[in-house]
Each structure stands twice: as structure tokens, then as C-alpha cells.
Design brief:
The protein is of the alpha+beta class. It contains seven helices and 16 strands. Helix 2 crosses helix 3 and helix 5 crosses helix 7. The protein is globular, with a radius of gyration of 19 Å. The two termini are 34 Å apart. Bound molecules: 4'-deoxy-4'-aminopyridoxal-5'-phosphate. The site of 4'-deoxy-4'-aminopyridoxal-5'-phosphate has 13 residues, from helix 5 and strand 14.
């Protein structure tokens, strides 16, 4: 599914077939999870294939790398150029793109001198599908911001996401919603979270969440069309009096939520602010008119 015999990836400085790309069994990333990555999408637009928010994603990759003492030998522009080349060589327009900066051979608990870049792309449907989601509050909190850089997209952090997702699936839910270390609602295992109450949107502030690029985009669209958005801490009790809710993320886009632990949101999804934002987000990614402007609609 992620690659065929013909798929081309960028690995160790060159374009090679995915089946021929190799990594050392002694890579520090494999043993200790010290790697950084991104999840990006490209869309087919009237102006050709466009990588959505390419600069923002690659700047975040470089910032994540700096936080984790992982060297990044590429500029944002070089990373974008390599990515367009990966798309071209695979004849992809709509695609999910996965860059990973991983560490070299090193079994010590000190950063590696060496880092390698891997970029692959594949066709991926919306990560959480198109149906309204049934969500459960996870028993796994988001990582403690005093023990790691939660704002960096670090490979090792995703063991927490895997545990939360698996727990939710085992309980018969579609997705988990995770709390921060103080019991406030934080985000999903791979998405940010919003809820609507009395025509105001609420989302957790930065601190225990990943600063999602979709989150920022959706807030920008919302404010542009006159919606009120408040970044504030909130509890599960407050959420369970909400009118509607949704997740945002590159892979999931804007995904509507039907219920949280059996609490059915009263507002029909089609009448919610999230629904309008989902439509506007789709419009934005499809027109491709976003590369050099902050005025996006
Ligand atoms: N939170 C987490 C934990 C994530 O993994 C992601 C996906 N990168 C997001 C939020 C959403 O971020 P973005 O909108 O930049 O994809």
C-alpha cells in the first residue's frame, strides 16, 4: 500500500526505488525514537500539483530537528524541490508526503553527528474517513511538556499516539481524545481538536499540543469569515456541554465528531461551524491559491 516495486523515494541523498532503500539496524532512531518527521499533502489544483503549506511544514521539520539536536543539511527550498521531484517521479498529484530526518549509527544517549533524510509519498484517503466519528477520552495523557518537546514532531512521541488509538479501537470507538497532564482536553493522537458552543469555537492553546498547520489554517479561515475562535484550556465537563466538535490535521483534514463517550453533540454536523470550515478548507486546498498569501479565501 505504501509502495510498489516501482515507487521512487528520496533516501540517503538520492532518488532510489523504495524497495532498494536501506537503513542501518544501528540507527539511533530505531532504538530510541530520536527522529523528526512531517505529514504533508499535495493536491491537484487548476494550477497543477501543489504541496499545501509546504514552507510551513518544512520549517516545522527544521524547528523540530533543532530542538532534538538532529542536523538538517537542507534548506526549506531544497526540501520543497526534492519533494516536488518525488511527486513527479511517481506521477503523483494528490498524495500524502512523509519526510523523516533520522539519526545515524549511534547507540549512546547523545545526539548523533550524522542524520539522513527520507522522503516518500503515497496515495492516502482521509485518515479518519468521511463519517462522523465516535470518540472516547483516552486514559493515555499527551506527553508531559516538561519531559519532552511536545511542539516538535518527534518519532518517539508517537508511541503515545499508538497506545491511545489502540485503546480507543479496542473499546469500539473510532478515535481517542487525549488530555494534558492537568486533565484539560488537549488533542487527538494525530489531530488537533475544536468544539463549538453558542457559536464560538474553542481549541486548546499551545503548550501540550502539536501546533497543527491545519489548526492554524482553520482558525485563519474562521476569523476571516467572522467566526469567533478562542484558544483556551477546557475540561471534559465543559466539552460535554458543547454543540458540535471536529478534529483537524493534514491527514484527516477537517473531520466531524458525532459523539464523545456517548454524549451526542446536539447540533447536526451540516448546521455546525465545523461543517462550514470543512467546506472552506476543501475549497482552499482544491484551488491551490495559498502559496504566497496569508489571505486565503
Ligand atoms: N496533533 C498531532 C499529535 C499530530 O500528529 C498532528 C499531525 N501532524 C496534528 C496535531 C495536526 O497537525 P497538522 O495540521 O500540522 O497536520
Amino acid at each position: 500500500m505504501y509502495f510498489t516495486n516501482k515507487t521512487i523515494v528520496f533516501a540517503n541523498g538520492e532518488f532510489v526505488k523504495a524497495k532498494d532503500a536501506t537503513v542501518s539496524m544501528f540507527s539511533q532512531t530505531l532504538h530510541y525514537g530520536n527522529g523528526v518527521f512531517e505529514g504533508i499533502r499535495a493536491y491537484s489544483t487548476p494550477g497543477g500539483t501543489k504541496i499545501f503549506k509546504a514552507r510551513e511544514h518544512y520549517q516545522r521539520l527544521k524547528d523540530s530537528a533543532a530542538k532534538m539536536h538532529i542536523r538538517c543539511n537542507y534548506s526549506v527550498k531544497e526540501l520543497i524541490d526534492i519533494t516536488y521531484e518525488v511527486l513527479k517521479r511517481n506521477k503523483f498529484s494528490d498524495a500524502y508526503i512523509r519526510p523523516v530526518l533520522y539519526s545515524g549509527i549511534n547507540m549512546k544517549l547523545v545526539p548523533s553527528e550524522e542524520s539522513m533524510l527520507f522522503i516518500a509519498a503515497w496515495k492516502w484517503a482521509r485518515y479518519l474517513g468521511n463519517k462522523l466519528l465516535h470518540v472516547t477520552i483516552s486514559s493515555y495523557e499527551r506527553p508531559n511538556p516538561n519531559s519532552c518537546h511536545v511542539e516538535a514532531k518527534v518519532t518517539g512521541h508517537y508511541v503515545n499516539s499508538i497506545l491511545a488509538t489502540q485503546e480507543a479501537r479496542e473499546k469500539g470507538f473510532d478515535e481517542a481524545l487525549q488530555l494534558d497532564l492537568n486533565g484539560n482536553v488537549a488533542e487527538g493522537p494525530g489531530t488537533n481538536f475544536f468544539y463549538e458552543k453558542d457559536s464560538v469555537l474553542y481549541t486548546a492553546p499551545l503548550g501540550s499540543i502539536l501546533a497543527g498547520i491545519t489548526r492554524a489554517t482553520v482558525m485563519e479561515i474562521a476569523r476571516h469569515v467572522g467566526m469567533e475562535v478562542r484558544e483556551k484550556l477546557f475540561t471534559v465537563e465543559e466539552l460535554l456541554e458543547g454543540d458540535s466538535a471536529f478534529f483537524t490535521g493534514t491527514a484527516a483534514e477537517v473531520a466531524g465528531i458525532g459523539s464523545v463517550d456517548g454524549y451526542q453533540f446536539p447540533l447536526p454536523w451540516e448546521d455546525s461551524m465545523g461543517y462550514i470550515l470543512a467546506q472552506k478548507y476543501r475549497q482552499l486546498i482544491r484551488t491551490g491559491d495559498y502559496s504566497h498569501s496569508t489571505t486565503i479565501i
